[in-house]
C-alpha cells in the first residue's frame, strides 16, 4: 500500500457502513471510506444525523429535498461545526 496515497504513507483503510430501512420495507446502503483514524467519529456522526431522518417520509423528501438538507446542516446544536459555511438565503 505504500505510495498509494501521497498524504497518508501508512493508510489503514476502513469504512463505515449504514444500512437504512424504512417502515415500508425500502432499504438502502451507504458506505463511507476513511484512511482508518476517525472512522469511529464518522460512525458517531452517522448515528446522530440519522435521528434527524426519523419521521420523514420518502414522499416528503421527494417533494422538498431542501427541507432535509436544511435539517441536516442547520441543526441548532450541530451548525457550529461548520460556522460560516452555510448561509441562507444564498
% residues in beta strands? 15-25%
Most strands sheet: 2 strands, antiparallel
- In terms of quaternary structure, what is this? single chain
- The sequence of SSEs as H and E is EEHHH
Principal-axes geometry comes out as extended
Pick out the low-confidence regions. Answer: none
Distance between the amino and carboxyl termini? 42 Å
What number is the mean pLDDT?
A: 80
Q: Gyration radius, to the nearest Å?
A: 17 Å
Count of strand segments: 2
**Helix count, DSSP H or I runs of 4 or more residues:** 3
Helix content: 25-40%
Biggest sheet strand order reads 1-2
Q: Which class best fits the helix and strand makeup?
A: alpha+beta
Number of domains: 2
Summary of the model, kept short:
The chain is of the alpha+beta class. It is 30% helix and 18% strand.
Overall description:
The protein is of the alpha+beta class and 90 residues long. It folds into two domains: 1-50, no CATH class; 54-84, no CATH class. 30% of the residues lie in helices and 18% in strands. The chain has three helices and two strands; from the N terminus they run ββααα. A two-stranded antiparallel ribbon has the order 1-2. A hairpin with a 5-residue loop joins strand 1 (14-21) and strand 2. The longest helix has 12 residues, at 39-50. It is extended and about 45 Å long.
Amino acid at each position: 500500500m505504500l505510495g498509494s496515497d501521497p498524504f497518508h504513507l501508512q493508510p489503514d483503510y476502513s469504512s463505515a457502513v449504514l444500512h437504512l430501512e424504512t417502515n415500508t420495507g425500502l432499504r438502502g446502503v451507504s458506505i463511507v471510506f476513511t484512511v482508518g483514524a476517525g472512522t469511529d467519529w464518522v460512525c458517531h456522526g452517522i448515528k446522530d444525523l440519522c435521528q434527524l431522518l426519523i419521521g420523514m417520509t420518502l414522499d416528503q423528501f421527494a417533494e422538498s429535498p431542501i427541507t432535509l438538507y436544511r435539517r441536516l446542516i442547520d441543526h441548532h446544536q450541530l451548525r457550529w461545526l461548520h460556522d460560516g459555511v452555510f448561509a441562507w438565503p444564498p
